[in-house]
Specification:
9-stranded parallel β-sheet; 261 residues; TIM Barrel; alpha/beta; 41% helix
């Protein structure tokens, strides 16, 4: 029995119910470059854009970040926006902001109503998670609580615990991304996703990174992963697949499996 759950935004499934939803990252360092990326990516018709704001050179200016979020939203032509600051410890870019300043930035962006989702790492301070969760709920923003390991893949039971932890912390979506060292690690991710999808009532997003990890990006949806990150104009993690290739694989697999979301 398929137990996958789509990501819901304002009571409707992301991507009009396409499963998995496809997300393309925006990783430009300047306003001009980011808007160029948006123009390029929108033509590829993803279901979601992710703005990795830790790449943005103006991250220290909250007003500038909020204004640019509004410009991205306007240029996106109705494609929802996921706002993400990835920390250095989980694979992000170095920034000149402390954690309290990061939380204040996320709260301001939620209040702007320019984004539909926000990503925050579940390893963050519990008080900071509570602040972000409160801001997201107050402004109708879906909260993605995430966990990343760019060095290894924890055991399947640990990955299941991470999914459950996100749920317990109030996530609307639980996400894990880990680095495989062998093919067995890929099976751990897929197994954990399937098991968690059968017990948790929130959407899950999972992936392995790197070469082996491409398997999870292409086929993880069959095990319950609601979204795959694909290449639009630039990559935000190793192993991301071009959106055209992903669409081709989905067409073949969904026809072969007679899968209906």
């Amino acid at each position: 029995m398929h137990t996958a759950k789509p990501i819901m935004l304002h009571g409707k499934p992301l991507g009009s119910g396409r499963f998995p939803a496809l997300c393309t990252p925006l990783v430009g360092r300047s306003r001009a470059r980011i808007l160029e990326e948006v123009a390029c990516v929108v033509a590829l018709q993803p279901d979601l854009l992710e703005w990795r704001v830790d790449f943005f050179e103006g991250i220290g200016n909250t007003a500038e970040v909020v204004a640019l979020a509004g410009q991205i939203r306007q240029a996106a032509g109705g494609i929802p926006l996921l706002f993400t600051r990835r920390s250095i410890r989980e694979g992000g870019e170095p920034i000149a902001l402390g954690e309290e300043e990061v939380v204040a930035l996320i709260v301001a962006v939620c209040a702007s109503h320019f984004v539909e989702l926000v990503d925050f790492e579940m390893n963050n301070d519990p008080g900071h998670i509570a602040q972000v969760r409160a801001a997201a709920r107050a402004h109708g923003v879906a909260l993605v609580l995430s966990y990343h390991d760019f060095q290894s893949t924890p055991a399947q039971e640990v990955l299941c615990q991470r999914f459950a932890q996100a749920k317990d912390l109030g996530a609307d979506v639980a996400k894990i991304a880990v680095m495989p060292q062998r093919l067995e690690d890929v099976l751990s991710v897929l197994g954990a996703t399937l098991a968690a999808s059968q017990t948790l009532d929130i959407p899950l997003v999972s992936m392995s990174m790197g070469g082996y990890g491409a398997l999870t990006r292409l086929f993880g949806w069959t095990f319950g992963s609601a979204m795959s990150f694909v290449v639009g104009a630039g990559t935000s993690a190793p192993g991301q697949v071009p959106i055209a290739d992903m669409n081709a694989v989905l067409e073949i697999m969904q026809r072969s499996l007679a899968f209906k979301a």
